[in-house]
Amino acid sequence: MEEKNYITPAGHERIKCELLRLLNLDRPEVVKVVHWAASNGDRSENGDYIYGKKRLREIDRRIRFLNQRLEFAVVVDNQARKSGDADAEQVFFGATVTYESLEGPDLGKKTRITIVGVDEVDLDCGHVSWVSPIAKALIKARLGDCVKIQTPNGPTEIEILDVQYQ
């Protein structure tokens, strides 16, 4: 059995949209090109046919991967934390956390990250995986807590300034 694939509702929707685009738009378009190229005769030196088949294999591989990720996906919705029915000051999956470095070369630097699933990681947007060292250190901590994290420059202490669920 596969390990659970925790994912946010937005991430789940993005994966579904990509899968549907591949199935309904990209794959049929490539199939048409391959069919046309095959009807031209000799396939051994037919670039459209050769590269079309290669692209078709890539699309099929991606479709299988996305289907597998969706099959084991566990959508984590923080609606109770968003509405205030649950503790919104504690860090869990889906939280957007603002923290400040209390020591080291980044002293005083404020950073904002969102803890998401492994399929949603985008460091440019500040989205980090829930299995990353920073996320593991922050999960279950509360607003105002000081947490030690391991960085490439050694252990550093950070303070949680803000926790939000969007």
In short:
The chain is of the alpha/beta class and 166 residues long. The protein contains 4 helices and 7 strands, in the order βααβαβββαββ.
Written account of the structure:
The chain has 166 residues and is of the alpha/beta class. It has four helices and seven strands; from the N terminus they run βααβαβββαββ. It folds into two domains: 5-75, Orthogonal Bundle (Helix Hairpins); 80-165, Chitinase A, domain 3. Helices cover 40% and strands 25% of the residues. The strands form two sheets. It has a five-stranded mixed sheet. A hairpin with an 8-residue loop joins strand 3 and strand 4 (110-116). The radius of gyration is 22 Å and the shape is elongated. The two termini are 31 Å apart.
Strand content: 15-25%
> Outline, from the CA principal axes?
elongated
Please give the CATH class of the largest domain: Alpha Beta
CATH superfamily of the largest domain: Transcription elongation factor, GreA/GreB, C-terminal domain
Helix/strand/pairing category: alpha/beta
Query: Which CATH architecture of the largest domain would you pick?
Result: Roll
Average pLDDT, all residues: 88
Q: What number of structural domains do the residues give?
A: 2
- H-E string: EHHEHEEEHEE
Please render the helix and strand layout as text.
Blueprint: E1 5-7, H1 9-38, H2 47-71, E2 73-75, H3 79-83, E3 95-101, E4 110-116, E5 127-129, H4 133-138, E6 146-151, E7 154-165
Parallel strand pairs: 1-2, 4-5
Antiparallel strand pairs: 3-4, 3-7, 6-7
Helix pairs in contact: 1-2
Domain Transcription elongation factor GreA/GreB N-terminal: 5-75
Pfam families: GreA_GreB, GreA_GreB_N
Domain Transcription elongation factor GreA/GreB C-terminal: 88-165
